[in-house]
Structure formats: structure tokens, C-alpha cells
Amino acid sequence: MTEMVYGSNPVRVSEPVIPKWWRTIDKWVLTCVFVLFGIGILLGLAASVPLATRNGLEPFYYVQRQAFFGGVALIVMIAVSMMPPVMVRRLGVLGFALSMVALMLLPLFGTDFGKGAVRWFSFGFASVQPSEFLKPGFVVVVAWLIAASQDLAGPPGKTISFALTLVVVGFLAMQPDFGQSALVLFAWGVVYFVGGAPMLLIGVVGGIVAAAGLVFYESSEHFARRIDGFLSPDVDPRTQLGYAANAIQEGGFFGVGVGGGQVKWSLPDAHTDFIIAVAAEEYGLILVLAILALYGVIVVRSLWRLLPERDPFARLAGAGLACIFGVQAMINMGVAVRLLPAKGMTLPFVSYGGSSVIAAGITLGMLLALTRERPRGQMSDVFRRGR
Amino acid sequence: MRTPLRPLARILQARQEGLNPDSIEKENLRIRHEALREKARARAQFRLVVLCASFVMAFGAIGARMGLMAATEPVEPRSRAPGAEIIAQRADITDRNGRVLATNMTTHALYAHPRVMVDPKGSAEKLAAIFPDLDAKALERRFTDGRSFVWIRKILSPEQMQRVHEIGDPGLLFGPREKRLYPNGSLAAHILGGTSFGAEGVHSAEVVGVAGIEKALDARLRDPAQGTKPVALSIDLSLQATVEEVLAAGMSMLNAKGAAAILMDVRTGEVLALASLPTFDPNNRPNPLVDKDAEPGDSPLFNRAVQGVYELGSTFKIFAAAQALELGLVKPDTMVDANAPMIWGKHKIKEFENKNYGPLLSVSDVIAKSSNVGTAHIALMIGPLRQQAFLKSLGFFEPTPLELIEAPGAKPLIPKKWPEIVTITTSYGHGLSASPMHLAAAYAAIANGGVMIKPTLLKREGPTTGVRVMSEKAARESVAMLRRVVTEGTASLGEVPGYEVAGKTGTADKPKKSGGYYKDKVINTFASVFPASNPQYVLIVTLDEPMDTALSETRRTAGWTAVPVAAEIIRRVAPLMGLRPKLEPVAPDAVTAASN
């Protein structure tokens, strides 16, 4: 009666945004990200103090900065994760376009911070590394193109995306930044692989890559030395790798104790590329395995949730984002335990670095958005299954 | 091209019924699209599972590796230099009795890792205080300009090392170094030569020979297969010390510029002592002369005994006499024309101080009195071809085969053409230049009964064989003639009671660089053999520009300079070598009376 008298409540056409987000989001991955970020801050308390001391700053300067950037990254992640796939695609394309322009402008306005590679834009209080922001957008664009190519009478997305990849790799190699180039190539490869690359092609490309590696090994002194250093059983203890290996051994299973680590004083990159060594030394194998498990859960669970996905774009983009995230972590830790040749790569969410953590927030936000539970396909799909 | 509408049967039917076939076409497209997507999804599902599995395996491998590393005990960091290990060990060198001439000592090199230095400025100042030759400012600049590695010293003494330790900077590091040590200082310096560092790394450095036997036998000394088995030289340390001592004293008394001596065993060819003065300390080798005009002989590094190629003067006369005896042209008492001056073409052959020993002299007297004219006539009897062949067989046409790196470079200077005038001058030692080592080898051939043996610096086990260059009889008669030089001739100061010294003096004017000869610069040589009745040793003594001013007149002949020095050497070394002096037989009665 009340409705009849006062008019009916406006009918909700859809659920409220936040509850819907909470219902459909992958809470496991979300939790893992928060825990990883917490571990990053915890390790930063240990690993970045020597750097701050060296630079004459207060001891926890870098921790504060990391907490600030991390907060921003988490907010960005949640905001992005609320978007529907179409919005993710638009954001990705826009982000890619912007960071591509930034990447092209690097040779003109960039700075190398005395490290020999022009990778950053310096803005006084902070610096921005466009290649970090390029990756998620790039994955989205490639996924879009390849998904579109699967349509009947769709555009030749595979060819276009490959051309795009070559352009991006070219710009990255110009800096030079071979690590990011390799990551971009890998991202394209994953998306193409999931999007249905012919097996024959995969075999041929694998062979070519092996041959190219051999040629590089023969021709490039720098490259050969890296590989030799990796293959030789003895590691010079005066290299970063040597320090890292020693730190892992010193730490043992339970670590030398909070604040008791020594490696952070010797390693210039203790707070970024070799933060896993600091973790291993101070907190032992336990924490390292926990970190590994967190990354494993994020990657595997995201991929698993994409299995029943019917939208090709969401599937491809999600797979690409999960894989670049996982591979970055894998390379970082693989280098520390000498399973992989030395290559600078940050540990997402854990390593210090504003660009890195915010880009990781965007990546994970997109991934979370793409792995949210959605109505899958049409009733016909359900019926067809029975046939 | 027009694509046919599908499925054609339904389209045709629809057309017949007047319906729009487009909707059928669209429906068909949708179904095909669905099927395609379904296929792609199935494939993607499988590939996503593959990706999942790869990630699980990769993370698992990292975790396992991490666990393995955590489970191993950390070892003390021990780095290994990349590439081949530098072979630092070097065999010792000993004398013939096993006394050490060269060995290795472990010392340390000092280097710095400026990036881990605590106080570069303070450390630089303290280092400069320890090593006065280092400049604190320059050192500090090298420590702070961003480089990661700086060599500071190649060799540290233990005291210096301790003082560097006391600076206590973790960026100052020590690398072990083998240092070649010559415990006898300058003794036998020219034989040993010296060493320096070859390839250098932080953890070791190669020690390579730079001169003398260290360089000549470098491969053997560094051969890992031989281990550290020492190399025994033919040198006897006591004899070497005695020879050097007497030679140095003689050189300073006679105001000579340089001197050289060779003591050699005539049967084995072993060089027992080889000295060249002035000398140097192989532990701290002086730098070679940089002045281009300087003569190599001005450097103490110059080995006069082996590298010094001189005209050896009258010491050559015995070769003409010996060959004439060997060929049966003369006997020791054959009289030859010695009427001076002798005119040969436009040349005039004179005797020393324009004397005239003629008109006739026996061959034995030609040698004893050192007659140029007499020797010239003997040489003319032999003729140029046979003379050349004989000198060649005595080794005067080739560098000596001694185990010194300098030996192959010391080529004798041989006249390009060999007319009879050259036969004449060569017979008394002018025109052909050779080293004292050549002379020692040739005299050894006369002394040991006519066999040319290879001189060596390495210890030989037992006697050696060589090429016979003259009969034993000719050799014995030649030694007898040489003995007369000491008893009755020019080398009367060379008599050492009991040791029957035989020998031949030689005084050669020094050639000018511009050509011609100096009037007052001579090289005096005494080539001796002892004991004459059973020759066992050859001793060559050469003095460069000596001057005997002891009596009122200045004497520059070998009889007054090289001969007394050689006699003193023989007097001292003969007992050391266990040579029994041959004294006048004592009457048996006298011995009995004394003992009663």
C-alpha cells in the first residue's frame, strides 16, 4: 500500500558498485597483493637504510616514499579493478598511447641518472620510467588486436600486433633496455600463444632464438662474459651475485634475525634488484618461500580463473598481464639464486621504486578487473554442452 | 569476388519463398563464429593450463634452489680469477754443489678497492708516509675518481705490509706474490740475469726471466712438469766469489774500466766461474741505458765475458803455431824468419815497440817472445783456407752455445774477404773479433789434447765428447810452448809456484768507433792453462783499458796487467779445486830428520 500511495522505490537496475566489486573480485589475489606490499615495506625497513645513510637522508626516507607510492598504487589498483573489461581496454589503449609518446620523447627530454641508459623523465621530487607504464597498456592492445583477429572478417591483428611489438622493442633497445625489451617480446609471445599460435611456428621461433643467442654469445664480449659468469660453478664473491649467494647461505632456513643482515651494506641494489637476498638473509628461507608462494598464487589463480572465460579479449589480456607479472618476479628471484643469467629486474610490489610499484598496481588492477566473475556467455552455451 | 551465401539450400529455398536471405546468412555467420570461438576457447584453455604448469614448475625450481642454497653452509668467499691460472712457481737455481743461487720468496702486492675504502684521504696520507716515493695527493685522486681498482705496490716487505695492515682500511688489500730472490746479491749476476713480472693478477703473478740464464732457461724453470726441481749450474759459488773478488781488486788497482774472467774445466766444458765487472744486483736490476750514443759496454748489465766481442791480440798466435805443428809444417824448434819489420805489399808488420827478434827464431820462441813477424810467416805457410777452416773448427765463426740469452747475440766479427794480409793479421789476433768465451773454448781444446768441446753453464755428469781438431801430440807441444811463455817469455809474472801455469798474453788496441785504433786504449788478455803437465783448467782474464802505474812508467801490456791478476786468481782457486801443487821433490832424508 505504501508504494501505491507514495510511489514505488526506484527499481535498481544493477547492484551497487562496491558490493558488486567485492562479490566478484578475486579476494585471494587481492589479499596476496596486500601481503606482498606489506612484505615490501618490511624489507624496505631493512634494505633501504644503507642507501639512505649513504645519501645523507634520514634512515627511513625511502620507506616513507615507498609507503606513499605504494598507497597510491593500491588505490589505483582498486580503482582500475572496478572497471568492466571494455573500460580496461580503453584505459589500456590510452595508457599505451601516452606511454608510447613518452617513450619516443625520452631521447629528447629523458635523463640517465648517470647509469648509462636514458630511461627516466625527471620531475624534481620523483622520476618516471615510461617503459614500466608501457607494459600493461601494451598487453591490453596486443590482446585486443589478436582477439579481434579471431573474428570472422576481423582485422589482421596478429600481423599488426607483431609490427607494434617490433616498434616498441626498437625504442626500448635504443635506451638501451634489453630486459624490458625481452619482457615486451615475451608478453606478445604469451598473448599470441594463448590466442592460438601454430605449434610449428613456436618450434621454429624457439630454434631461431637459440641460434641468435649463440651468435650473440660469439660476437658480443659483454654478453659472453655474462653468460660465462652464469655458467661457471664458482662465483666471484665480489660481484653482486656473489654477495647475494652468500646472503642466502648465511640466512639458512630461519634467517640471521631482523636487522642482523650484512648483505644490504655491500649490495648497491639491495633495495631493488636484490631485495630477495636481503629477505633470505634476515628472515631465512621461510619468508622467501612465502614470497614465492604469494607470486605463485597470484599468477596461477588468475590464469585458472581465465580458463572458463568466454570473452577472447579478457582471456588474452588477463593471461598476458598475469604472465608478465609472474615472469618479472621469476627473473628477479631466478637471478638471485643463479638459475638465470644476471639481468636487472625489479620484484613487483616488493622492490623499491615509484614507477615500478604504480605500474604493478595498474597491471594487477587490470588483471583483477579481467578476472572478476561475470555472467559467462549465453544459455545456448550451457545447452550446447549437453550435445 | 562475390562470396556465395551459405547454406545455399536454405538460401535458395528462402528466395523461392520470397523471403530475405540475409537473416539466414547472418544466422549462419553467427553459428560459424560461435563454433570458431568455441574451438579457440578449448585451445586457449589447454594453453593456459600449460602456462600455469610452467609457472608452478619455475617457481618450484626457484624455491628448491633457494632451499638447497639455504641448506649449504656458507664458505669463506674464495674467488678464482677467470681464465687460466697464472703459473707462479719457478724452479730454484743452484750452483754445482747445491748452494742456492736463485730462489723464490713469498711477498705481497698491495692494491686497493677504492669503493670500499673508509677514509681515502687519510689512507692516502698514511700510505705516502710508509712509501716515501708515493705522492699522497696523486694517490688520493686515484682513490676518489670513481675507479674500482688501483695497484699501489708490486712488492711489499713484511714490515711494510704490517704497517699497511695498521692503517686498517678495508679497501687496502694484499695479493700474494712470488718474488725471485738472489741470496748472494751481485755474485754471478751476469750468469743469472734477472726476472720481472709477466702476466699479473690479484692472486698471483707470473715471474719471467728477462736476462741471463733466467731467460734462456725460462721454459724449463717454469715447466710445471718439472715441478720445483732445481736447476744445477756448473758454477762453483766459492770459485765464483774468489774470481770476482780478485778481479775487482785487480781492476781497481790497474785503473781498468772493466774486466772479465772465465774459469773453465777443459775436459767437461763446464764453466766454473764467469765474471764480468762492473756488475749489478739481480735482485734490483738497473735499467738499461737509454742514451743512444752510449756504448753497451758502459752499462753494468753488459756481460763482457760473453757479449764483449774484442780483438783478442797475441793470444791468437798459439792457434797458428798449433795448426802448423798439426800439419807437420814445423816442429817447436824449427827456425822461422822473424826479421822485423816485415814488408807485405804496402803493409809493414812491426814488433811491439819496434823491436827485432830476428833474423831467425824457433817456433817456440816466436810464441814465448810474442813475435808478430814470426807468427806471420808461420801463418803464410798454412795459408788462408786452412787457417779459416781451423779457426772455424775452434768455434770462432759462430756465437758460443752458452746457455745465456745474450750468447747467441754475440756474433764474432769476421773479415769479409780473406786475402793473405788478413791471414797475417788474424794470426796475431787483429781483424777477427771474438768474445773471451770463444777464447776459453778454443784454449780448452788445446789444453785437453785437441778435442773441441761445447762450453756449458749447466752441471755435467762426467766427461763429454767433442770433435777432435788436432792431434794429441800437437796439443801437448802447444801447451809446452805456452808454458815457456810463463817461464821465459812475456808472462813471467804469471808463475804460481806448484801450479805450472801456461798461457799467452794478448794486448790489442781498442778500435775507434770512427775507424782506426786508439793509441792509449788497450784490451789486455791473458789466456792461461794449468797445470801444464796435465792441463785441467783454462782461465781467461780480460782487462779493459788497464794502466799499471806502480813503477815510474805507465805500462799497458798484458804481461803487467792481466797476467798478475790471473796469477793471483790461480793461486787462490787452485787449492779450492783440490789441485795438488807440484813442488820440488823433498829429499827423503830431510823428512826423516825432521820427524826425529
UniProtKB/TrEMBL annotation, chain A:
EC number: 2.4.99.28
Compartments where found: Membrane
A biological process term (GO) from this entry: cell division
InterPro entries (alphabetical): FtsW/RodA (IPR001182)
Membrane topology: Multi-pass membrane protein
Broad class of the protein's primary localization: membrane
Keywords annotated in UniProt: Cell cycle, Cell division, Cell shape, Glycosyltransferase, Membrane, Peptidoglycan synthesis, Transferase, Transmembrane, Transmembrane helix
Pfam families recorded: FTSW_RODA_SPOVE
Keyword Flavoprotein listed: no
The protein's enzyme class: transferase
Catalysed conversion reaction: [GlcNAc-(1->4)-Mur2Ac(oyl-L-Ala-gamma-D-Glu-L-Lys-D-Ala-D-Ala)](n)-di-trans,octa-cis-undecaprenyl diphosphate + beta-D-GlcNAc-(1->4)-Mur2Ac(oyl-L-Ala-gamma-D-Glu-L-Lys-D-Ala-D-Ala)-di-trans,octa-cis-undecaprenyl diphosphate = [GlcNAc-(1->4)-Mur2Ac(oyl-L-Ala-gamma-D-Glu-L-Lys-D-Ala-D-Ala)](n+1)-di-trans,octa-cis-undecaprenyl diphosphate + di-trans,octa-cis-undecaprenyl diphosphate + H(+)
Keyword hit for Glycosyltransferase: yes
Sequence intervals crossing the membrane: 28-47, 67-87, 93-113, 133-153, 159-176, 183-216, 283-304, 316-337, 349-370
PANTHER family linked: CELL CYCLE PROTEIN, PEPTIDOGLYCAN GLYCOSYLTRANSFERASE FTSW-RELATED
UniProt similarity note: Belongs to the SEDS family. FtsW subfamily.
Protein name: Probable peptidoglycan glycosyltransferase FtsW
From TrEMBL, chain B:
UniProt-recorded name of the protein: Penicillin-binding protein 2
Transmembrane segments: 46-68
Keywords: Carboxypeptidase, Hydrolase, Membrane, Protease, Transmembrane, Transmembrane helix
Protein's cellular compartments: Membrane
Subcellular location, principal: membrane
Domain Penicillin-binding protein transpeptidase intervals: 260-558
Record has Hydrolase as a keyword: yes
Species the sequence originates in: Rhodobacter calidifons
